[in-house]
Amino acid sequence: FKVPAGFQEPSFNDAAWGEMLVPGNWECNGHGFPIYKNIKYCFETNPPFIKYAGADPEYNPTGAYRRIFELPPQWLEGKLEVFFHVGAVCCGCKVW
Of the candidates 25, 10, 11, which has an alpha carbon nearest to the alpha carbon of residue 88? Predict the structure, then answer.
């Protein structure tokens, strides 16, 4: 799966996108399928060349999320350090 070109731009139209529970796991919320560690892993382990062991070896689930938020002005005025924590990322992650 390739993410839609330009999805990180504020002007990108995401009106047709569905909702996602946050915090949440997208495989357990109707996107893809859960991967359990107590059964044979569904990806061949040959880092960095990881391939899906199922019918389509090019299967590579990718999620694109959008969330807009504003910091309270007093946080900015007080010169506070603000941290963005993404606690469930298990592979690659980009934040704009």
Answer: 25
| pLDDT given for residue 22 in this prediction | 77
User: Rounded to 5 degrees, what are φ and ψ at 44?
Assistant: -70, 135
Query: How many whole angstroms separate alpha carbon 22 and alpha carbon 12?
Result: 21
Secondary structure letter of residue 70 according to DSSP: -
What is the pLDDT confidence band of residue 43, given thresholds at 50, 70 and 90? low
User: Is the full-model pTM beyond 0.70?
Assistant: no
Question: Distance between CA 18 and CA 31 in Å, rounded?
Answer: 11
For the chain, report the end-to-end CA distance as a whole number of angstroms.
20
Q: State the residue for tokens 């330009």.
A: 6
Structure tokens at 16: 């047709």
